[in-house]
Each structure stands twice: as structure tokens, then as C-alpha cells.
Amino acid sequence: MSSAVTETEESAHSSPLTPLKLVGLVCVFLALCLDVGAVMSPAWVTADDQYYLSLWESCWKPGSYEKWQCNSTLDKDWQVATLAMLLVGGALVLMSFLVALVAVCIGTRRRFYAPVAVMLFAAVVLQVCSLVLFPIKFIESISLRIYHEFNWGYGLAWGGTIFSFGGGILYCLNPKSYENYY
Predict the structure, then answer these.
(1) Regarding predicted confidence, which is higher, 166 or 69?
(2) Mean per-residue pLDDT for 16-29?
(3) If you write DSSP's letter for every residue of 134-166 in order, what string do you get?
(4) Sign of the Cα pseudo-torsion (31, 39, 135, 64, in order)
(5) CB 73: neighbour CB atoms within 10 A?
(6) Half-sphere exposure of 146 (CA within 13 A, CB side)
(7) Mutual angle of helices 110-141 and 19-40, in 10-degree steps
(8) In what order do the strands lie in the sheet with 57-60?
(9) Taking the model in full, what pTM does it have?
(10) Rounded to whole angstroms, how far apart are CA atoms 138 and 157?
(11) Which end of the chain is more exposed for a tag (fewer CB within 10 A), N or C?
(12) Is the dihedral of CA 53, 80, 88, 139 positive or negative?
């Protein structure tokens, strides 16, 4: 008799794993992968094989020399702020992924939906702020006389932010509204 009560209590506390929550978990995992790729990327800004800028260093090839000269970018406040906001946002995405994964593994999912969504939306706010700050301060402080473009590292960061936002939305959806469809 006590086992029947335990099963009933357990089913009341846990919710069925819906496909949207699995898609949300995949979105969070993809966001985490894209964030890691963006932070490690050497190509945030490139300019005609003569200049490139990452979150960690700035390199240029003067004139017709073959050798690149590089400096750390961590001496400028705006670049440190960009990196810090991206790293804190990435840490929030990592924590939300771990919480969502633990929730799937132990079976008590419903109480973890809101914290995962809050962490993801906080990460999105931090990452959007850093991704808006970066090009504004870059154009304001660095004057390149050659054509330059924001490259794939910057695009990976935007991709990670978009997937974090999508995962946050999926974790906000109320499973009682759509569980009858599955």
C-alpha cells in the first residue's frame, strides 16, 4: 500500500518529459558549444590578411613582412568588459545546461524549468550587451584604413545567444498546455 502512495506522490511531483523540453535541452547544449567556440575563436574581426582581432589578442602584419606582431587585448577596458560579460553569460548557460540535464536524469523536472529559464535569459542579456558593445567600441577606438569585417567568431557568439534565447523560451512553456497533444 505504501508503494502505491509513493508512486502517486512521485507522479504528482514529476512531469512527463515532453519533446519541447528535449529540444530546449539541445538548444542549451548548442548554445554552450557555440559560446565556447566564440570565446576561443581567433577571428572576431579580420582585415584583408593584414589584421585580426580576437577576444584575447590583436595581431597585424606590417607592410610586406611575413611575421605577425601581436599584443594582448586585455589592456583595454571595453575588451575586458566584453570578455567578462561573455564568460559570465557562458557560465550561466553551462549552469542551466547542468541543471536541465540533472532534472532529466533524476525525473523531477517541473521545479527546474523556471530556474533554467531565468539563467538562460540572464545569459542572453549579458551576451547581447557584450555583442552590442564590441562593434561600437571597436569602430570608435580602432581606426583601420583597410576593409575589415566582423568574422565567424562574432557570428558564433550571436548564434550561441540566439540558441540560449530559444532554450529559455522552450523552458518557459507550460507543459500542461500542450501535453495533451503528445
Answers:
(1) 166
(2) 82
(3) HHHHHHHH---SS--EE-HHHHHHHHHHHHHHH
(4) negative
(5) 19
(6) 12
(7) 30
(8) 69-72, 57-60, 51-53, 45-47, 149-150
(9) 0.81
(10) 16
(11) N
(12) negative
Whole-number Å distance between alpha carbons of 117 and 112: 9
Going from the C-alpha of 71 to that of each of 34, 48, 74, 77, 179, the distances in angstroms are 25, 19, 9, 15, 55
Phi then psi dihedrals of residue 87, to 5 deg: -70, -40
SS3 label, residue 69: strand
Q: Which residue has the cell 523536472?
A: 109
How high is the pLDDT of residue 142? 73
d(CA 77, CA 6): 56
First-to-last C-alpha distance (Å) of the chain: 31
Residues in the chain, total: 182
What DSSP state is assigned to residue 75?
A: T
Helices (H), 14-74: 19-40
Calpha distance 161→166 (Å, rounded): 9
Q: What's the whole-number average pLDDT of the chain?
A: 82
